[in-house]
Amino acid sequence: MRTENHDALVVGGGLVGAAIAYGLQRQGLRTLLLDEGDVAFRASRGNFGLVWVQSKGLGAPHYQRWTRGSAEEWPALAAELREKTGIGTGLHQPGGVHICLSDEEFEKRGAAMARLRREAGNFGMEYRMIRGAEAREMLPGLGPKVAGVSWTPYDGHASPLSLLRALHTGFTGLGGRYQPNARVERGTAAANDFAVEAEGVLHRAPRIVLAAGLGNAELAPRFGLSAPVRPERGQILVTERTRQVLPMPTTTIRQTEEGSLMLGDSKEDAGFDLGQNPEVMKQIARRAVLSFPWIAELNLVRAWSALRVMAPDGLPIYDQSERFPGAFTANCHSGVTLAGTHANRLAPMIAAGALEPEMAPFTARRFDVRHAA
Amino acid sequence: MFATRPEFRPATVEVLVDGQPLSVPEGASAAAALLLAGLAASRETPVSGAPRLPYCMMGVCFDCLAEIDGVANRQACMVTVRPGMRIAPQCGARLAGTAA
Fold it and tell me: Minimal Cα–Cα distance from B51 to chain A, Å?
């Protein structure tokens, strides 16, 4: 079999893999990006598109900081991708809100936001709990059932598909090699010496990054790593395009740059079933119409489901293998939000051969019984 | 499969296309009326403003979007004409409800 040598292999051509591959190639590493193909679950193609900070990392300040850091990296990444590829990612970061439909929801949200600020410590976290009347001035057409909203200045949104395309175009433009239809089944691992087979070619490199989404669960143990991720289904409804009416995204409703409204944020354990369920679609629509009654006048033109990549505690997993140094995993359900840190902070760590100490809490060893005890 | 209809259907239903009266056969679609009216374009796309006319005539392509009897973004090929129907070009994105 023919052998090709690279500086780094990245397994997984979705948002996580593409952002890391882009970052590695930009660091000067000759990188090969292996992408499974259209049979893959492709969470990146079903993403809602929030660049979201509030509600992330309750009880996990390291995740709160990582997410905030990514929102901070985003403008530079978006500008760089636009300059290098001519592709806009539709990034807007006007701040965002979470809509509470009852006083009880509002109180609970307020308590969670207060806890997030306490956990942020000196890092700080700006937010406001805004009651219905004032919120209705902020957001045109907010419904009478809305008790209030939580607001932070950090939130925003972007187009997941444009981001994915920009990362791929940026990566290959820098000289990176993209190999589609390359499901990685076999591989060999030794410290700083990895080989995987794809399309009849053996690819070798001193570094390998596993960013195969749900595929990581099976792949990671072969490289001395662990990635106990499971699918969590989310469904999305999309309306016809309207003129820009929403000044900022919410946790469950956003208006795209082109004018469509996206409604979402359902969470179901449905295994690997990519189907849709009228009951859940109804709940999504109902919540949207309670939030903004005028949404009821709009036609729905598309709907889909996708599978989030979830660790048991809902937080990302980043690791380097102890047994086979040079092997890394990256797992998360926020490929859009975390693109900024993946390209600009994580990739340089991988290139340097070690994750920074701030990444230690993200290790999958947190799930070991002995470690937890 | 695609033979022309044998019977001649007289244009008996009067509709308004972009404000101009036009007679079309009973059972015709609003998209057919738009084509018959001979407009250069019956809509402008919401993102780039490109001019469009009805295309697939079977509910798939959304290029026939029109404002019909005051309701924006209707697929004109899926709507059968009625006497007095007002069919107007859809220029850009619709305005969403009370947010206006």
Answer: 16
Tokens 């791929």 identify what position? A168
CATH no., domain A230-310: 3.30.9.10
Long-range contacts of A252-258 (CB under 8 A, 24+ apart): A252/A99, A252/A284, A252/A287, A252/A288, A252/A291, A253/A99, A253/A288, A253/A291, A253/A292, A253/A295, A254/A48, A254/A49, A254/A50, A254/A157, A256/A49, A256/A90, A256/A157, A256/A159, A257/A90, A257/A92, A257/A159, A258/B46, A258/B47
Cross-chain residue pair A258–B92, CB shorter than 8 Å: no
Cβ atoms of B9 and B23 closer than 8 Å: no
Looking at chain A, the whole-number percentage of residues with pLDDT higher than 90 is 93
| C-alpha to C-alpha distance for A185 and A179, rounded to whole angstroms | 15
Locate the domains of chain A by residue range: 2-52+161-229+313-372, 96-153, 230-310
- Chain A residue numbers with beta carbons less than 8 Å from the beta carbon of B47 are 241, 258-259
Q: Residue A8 in 3-state DSSP?
A: strand
SS3 state at A359: helix
Q: Which residues of B touch A293 (CB under 8 A)?
A: 97-98
Give domain B11-87's CATH architecture: Roll (3.10)
- Hey, what CATH topology would domain A2-52+161-229+313-372 get? FAD/NAD(P)-binding domain (3.50.50)
- B95 at A interface, C-beta within 8 A: yes
- Interface residues from chain A to B (CB-CB < 8 Å): 140-141, 240-243, 245, 258-259, 261, 292-299, 301
Question: Considering only alpha carbons, which residue of chain B is nearest residue A240?
Answer: B73
| B83-96 tens-digit pLDDT | 999 999 999 888 87
Stated pTM of the model: 0.92
Tell me A53's DSSP state: -
**ipTM computed for the complex:** 0.79
| A112/A125 Cα distance (integer angstroms) | 12
Residues A32, A197: contact at Cβ < 8 Å? no
